[in-house]
Design brief:
The complex is a heterodimer. Chain A is built from 1 helix and 7 strands. Chain A has one helix at residues 7-30; strands at 34-37, 49-62, 67-73, 80-85, 98-106, 109-112, 118-119. Chain B folds into 4 domains: 1-163, no CATH class; 168-377; 415-517 and 628-656; 520-620. Helix content of chain B is 63%, strand content 11%. Chain B has helices spanning 2-29, 32-61, 68-73, 80-85, 91-112, 118-142, 165-180, 182-193, 200-231, 241-266, 270-293, 308-328, 345-377, 385-405, 416-439, 446-475, 481-491, 493-517, 624-641, 645-654; strands spanning 381-382, 520-526, 531-534, 537-548, 552-563, 566-571, 574-578, 583-587, 589-593, 598-607, 613-620. In chain B, the strands form 2 sheets. In chain B, strands 3, 4, 5, 6, 7 and 8 form a 6-stranded antiparallel β-sheet that branches. In chain B, a hairpin with a 5-residue loop joins strand 10 (598-607) and strand 11. In chain B, helix 2 packs antiparallel against helix 5, helix 16 (446-475) crosses helix 17 and helix 16 runs antiparallel to helix 18. Chain B is globular and about 85 Å long. The chains are: A alpha+beta, B alpha+beta. Chains A and B meet through helix 1, strand 1, strand 2 and strand 7 of A and helix 13, strand 1, helix 14, strand 8 and strand 10 of B. Strand 1 of chain A pairs antiparallel with strand 1 of chain B.
Chain lengths: 129, 662
């Protein structure tokens, strides 16, 4: 059938266009992702970031009250930042653990978004050789 | 003993290399005896790998801590069951399991899929040999499970979160799924290499693809249930990279299962099918890469190891090689027929395919986004739940709708009048359900109402299909309704098994929509005697009880649940403090309501020293439909998989003479 284009092409072209449109719509509405930073990289970030670091010092305070207070340090480094967190605390959370938590920097304190604290599995179970 | 294991692995490696090299040469030159010997080498490699696996299993059972692997992943106190499942608790064992499953699948597929034709099979053997060689190289040279050390008195023990009955079935299920996708891939490559691009490779591997896909799907639901009842945050899927790693190939394989029907029926979409099977296989390799390389932040955080670059390299080789092959064979992949109408069964299958692939690729984009953004902007950024949910809604809801439309649209072209007649009842049912839902106040979630309305539409069209088929069958005479129904299914296992799987997906959609869109979450700090309410249930905190177990101290909050003055029972969410591991674990308490399918999910979020509790309570409507969907899914898959003598005869006639060539 010369001269007559296959509808398959039409469907594929239209669908790809539709998918791209949906994708662009999303990126224009919701923007990109949340930046993942270490405590040393926190300065200069005004918006919401996800902070990854190691818990140093004994956590104190009430996560279901005024807030749980602890410091996070670069996993490989020395920069630290105080964190205030409210919400559920994972079972594995404690001093020395690597955690990820979302929030914003306010006056030198990282104010965490409630219920975003995630603990990484402790390295105890992955022996290094 | 470790020497025996090592020797077995080296043997397996050599046999697989032979299958690859000799097999390729034999297929290229058309040497039949050599091709048979390559096939025998592939079969023998299963035996050698099985010996290696037996050695490792034996070492685990004997607590032989001179094996590094045994010492790293088990301890003397570990119960025998978990000691044996530690086989796949670590990286080296997982790779060994992968190779074992791959060799097992290879043997079974090569021996049963002779219908594909000898010329295709001659190329399938070296393709399987190539994949097997890759894993054997890893096991022999990079990550040997048989590394030895001076025996220690005791082992390091198994990660407590892996000491769980789900551990015994969930990982092997996923492996059976991931690895199983190698078979259709190998046959597709075999067909291309042998220049036999008709639908025979698809027919020959249909059951293998279906089995791998069913394992992968059921394995994921098992994982979701594990997360729901054991991890205890009240959810079952968190769009974590490792979870996505299994979802992506499953979606691609779902697209493949649908599009091959078009090639079988109408000889179309040949290029597309080959590309889909390459995509599914590469995604399953990528999934293993994700879980094993530690390149992307995940709450699962497995070993960060040296095998990442190997996997990446292999994925690149496979992708480039298969794309080059498809390109070289493009002239042979021309469609015999063409799409006649945008309103036809073929067209709905095509829409479904594009949506599934789009969903799979947007998930892939989200998973690799941290790496890409770091490469481009120098700073890693990640996308989270809203991103995935957005695309699940954008692509998943139309997919749900298509599931109701597709099966009722005629092949080739459907007239709009016929469509109107066909869809009268499902459409009426869906609209009625939508109105009823809005009247009942479900409008609080637009996505929820849409999902439910579509679900009713799909269920109605499935019921209609069964009813129509049954009455047509009964009209032939000689059988009652029940007989007509069962013979309908028995005679079209693939079709009606497919509908049952569709029904499972609808149940899943209802369960997911209900438990996420209509979930109620309440948190409160309660002193002894105080109460809180969540979605009509009143929870009264009655204090704590503690018990000393052999390896942990169990603290349980006593929570009495009342509904409208009626006492529903006492539930005990709490925490366990493990002494040896110096670790706390959350023990949730769930009240299942079998009548409504909903759960009351209780979490003792924080146990306070003043005797109060921070209690978190979730009402999750219809969540149990998700687990029910798992069983329906399994049932539907089994119906479609079940051997069918009638189909066998039909195929035998169709391809008679196909095996005489060479």
């Amino acid at each position: 059938m010369p001269g007559k284009r296959s509808p398959v092409r039409l469907i594929v072209a239209l669908s790809v266009a539709a998918v791209l449109a949906v994708f662009l719509l999303y990126t224009s509405i919701a923007g990109g992702g949340t930046p993942s930073v270490r405590p040393s990289q926190l300065a200069g970030h005004k918006g919401r970031v996800s902070l990854m670091g190691q818990v140093v010092g004994e956590p104190a305070g009430d996560a279901h009250g005024a807030g749980l207070r602890f410091r996070l340090r670069d996993v490989k480094g020395s920069a630290t930042i105080p964190v205030v967190y409210t919400g559920s605390v994972p079972d594995l959370f404690r001093k020395g653990r690597d955690v990820v938590v979302d929030g914003r920097l306010r006056n030198g304190v990282f104010m965490a978004v409630p219920n975003t604290l995630v603990t990484k599995c402790p390295s105890k179970y992955t022996p290094k050789r | 003993m470790p020497d025996l294991g090592r020797a077995a692995l080296v043997t397996s490696f050599l046999l697989l290399v032979y299958a690859l090299v000799a097999g390729s040469y034999a297929a290229w030159k058309g040497r039949r005896r050599l091709a048979e010997s390559a096939q025998n080498a592939l079969i023998a490699s299963f035996g050698a790998t099985a010996v290696a696996a037996a050695v490792l299993l034996g070492a685990l059972a004997r607590h032989d801590f001179s094996f590094q692997y045994v010492a790293d992943h088990t301890s003397r106190e570990l119960p025998l069951g978990y000691t044996l499942t530690a086989f796949w608790g670590g990286q080296e064992g997982s790779l060994l399991l992968w190779l074992l499953v791959l060799c097992g699948y290879s043997v079974a597929a090569v021996l049963t899929a002779r219908r594909a034709g000898r010329d295709i099979l001659a190329w399938v053997v070296p393709t399987l040999g190539l994949v097997g060689t890759f894993f054997a190289v890893l096991l022999v040279f990079v990550a040997s499970p048989f590394a030895t050390q001076a025996a220690t008195a005791d082992g390091a023990g198994l990660n407590p979160s892996l000491q769980n009955p789900y551990m015994a079935v969930h990982p092997p299920m996923l492996y059976l799924g991931y690895v199983g996708l190698t078979i259709p891939f190998a046959f597709a490559m075999g067909a291309l290499l042998a220049r036999r691009t008709d639908e025979r490779w698809i027919v020959a591997t249909r059951r293998w693809t279906l089995a791998a896909w069913a394992f992968l799907g059921f394995g994921q639901l098992l994982g979701a249930h594990w997360a729901y009842v054991e991890i205890g945050w009240g959810g079952y899927y968190a769009w974590d990279p490792v979870e996505n790693a299994a979802l992506m190939p499953w979606l691609a394989a779902t697209a493949f299962l649908h599009s091959v029907m078009i090639q079988e029926k109408r000889g179309m979409l040949k290029v597309w099918n080959v590309l889909l099977v390459v995509l599914a296989f590469c995604l399953s390799l990528f999934g293993t890469f994700l879980t094993r390389s530690g390149i992307i932040q995940s709450i699962h955080s497995f070993t960060q190891s040296s095998i990442g670059p190997w996997f990446l390299g292999f994925i690149c080789v496979i992708t480039a090689g298969s794309l080059a092959l498809v390109f070289a064979r493009l002239p042979l992949l021309r469609a015999k027929t063409r799409l006649e109408s945008l309103v036809s069964r073929e067209a709905t299958f095509l829409y479904n395919n594009l949506l599934l692939v789009a969903l799979s690729l947007t998930i892939l984009w989200g998973v690799v986004y941290p790496i890409l953004s770091e490469a481009v902007t120098g700073e890693a950024a990640s996308v989270s739940k809203p991103y995935y949910n957005f695309f699940l809604h954008s692509f998943g809801l139309p997919l749900l709708l298509l599931m109701g439309i597709g099966p009722l649209v005629a092949w080739r072209r459907a007239s709009l009048r016929a469509l109107g007649r066909t869809f009268l009842w499902p459409l009426t049912a869906a609209i009625a359900a939508g109105v009823a839902l809005l009247a009942a106040g479900a409008g609080s979630s637009r996505v929820g109402v849409i999902a439910y309305t579509f679900s009713v539409f799909v269920l109605a069209s499935i019921v209609l299909e069964f009813a129509r088929g049954t009455s047509a069958r009964k009209a032939l005479g000689g059988v009652g309704w029940a007989g007509a129904f069962s013979s309908l299914i028995a005679r079209n296992r693939r079709r009606y098994g497919g509908y049952v799987v569709h029904a499972a997906i609808v149940l899943l959609a209802i369960g997911v929509a209900g438990s996420s869109a209509y979930e109620t979450v309440r948190e409160a700090r309660l002193q002894k005697g105080e109460s809180m309410s969540v979605a009509g249930d009143r929870l009264v905190f009655r204090g704590y009880e503690t018990a000393l177990e052999s390896n942990h101290r169990a603290i349980r909050a006593l929570v009495d649940v009342y509904r409208g003055g009626e006492y529903l029972g006492r539930y005990k969410p709490g925490k366990n403090q493990y002494f040896a591991e110096d670790q706390v674990s959350n023990e949730v308490s769930i009240r299942h309501d079998w009548l409504t399918g909903g759960d009351l999910f209780l979490i003792a979020d924080q146990v306070n020293s003043d005797g109060s509790i921070d209690l978190k309570a979730l009402q999750k409507p219809l969540v149990n439909l998700i687990w029910l969907a798992g069983f329906v899914f399994l049932g539907g898959s089994l119906i479609a998989l079940w051997p069918d003598a009638r189909e066998e005869r039909r195929l035998a006639e169709r391809y008679a003479g196909a095996t005489v060539r060479i």
